[in-house]
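Collaborator request log, item 7. Partner lab (contact: R.S.) asked for a structural prediction of ABC transporter permease to inform their binding assays.
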Amino acid sequence: MRESSGDRIFNIINITVLTLIGLVTLFPLYYVFVVSFATPQEFVEKNGFILFPTEWTLAAYKYLLNTSAFIKSIGVSTFLATVGTALSLVVTAGMAFGLSRKRLRGRKMMLMLILFTILFHPGIIPQYVLVRDLGLINSIWSLILPVLTSGWYIILMKSFFDSIPIELEEAAKMDGCNDLGVFFRIVLPLSLPAMVAFGLFYAVAYWNTFFNAILYINDFDKVPLQVVLRNMLIDSDTSTGGAAAVEMVSDQQIPTQTIKMAAVVLSTLPILLVYPFLQKHFSKGVMLGSIKE
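Returned to partner:
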């Protein structure tokens, strides 16, 4: 089919508008990246507006990686993203597998209770009282156990398990597998796309832990990366991370703005590096439950 003049005009306008939107969206990310590598002299001379540094430097990154508060926060966030994600996947997949078995007693009642948690949230104060009574205040586990699983993810993963033919389970049991054997040897290998997709969702959520850390963590050595980054971005005088940035300016003449941008880059880089390796499975996993083969 030949394109009409109206179709060509529409395509040109559409491509132009989408290109402009893409540039507007990507420019803040690009600006953060280039400023983090700018030299102090160029940053001061250009009043902070740098499109492309004439000289690149790693001074801000070297400083951050030599700051104990920043390094400790990276360790906390890494622990949350690895241990928290692993535990969340085990709990979510195990519960979803059990609910996908129609012979489970009380299955409908459990599904209704899970749906209730999606529709209604207890609020901050009851959740804080629960964490306090469990003795988790100022513990790293207060950032994992209250958000260990998600009712929405359980329902989605259950729908994926429902699409696995029951004949596979029956054949495995004829070969001597029990329910745990069916789960680990049959169901989980077939559910790799779903596990990768939910694993990435959980990892991003744990890596970006912020609000719960402010509520439950009092020791600055136990706060995750996002809290340190927030302190640096909002007020360089209100926290250890911010005070370190000010000290750096006075000692080595590195602008606090450059250090803040480097911190933003370091906080987003791990997730950006992990995603390309999971993209193949992730693209399949996000479609789970929508199409049955």
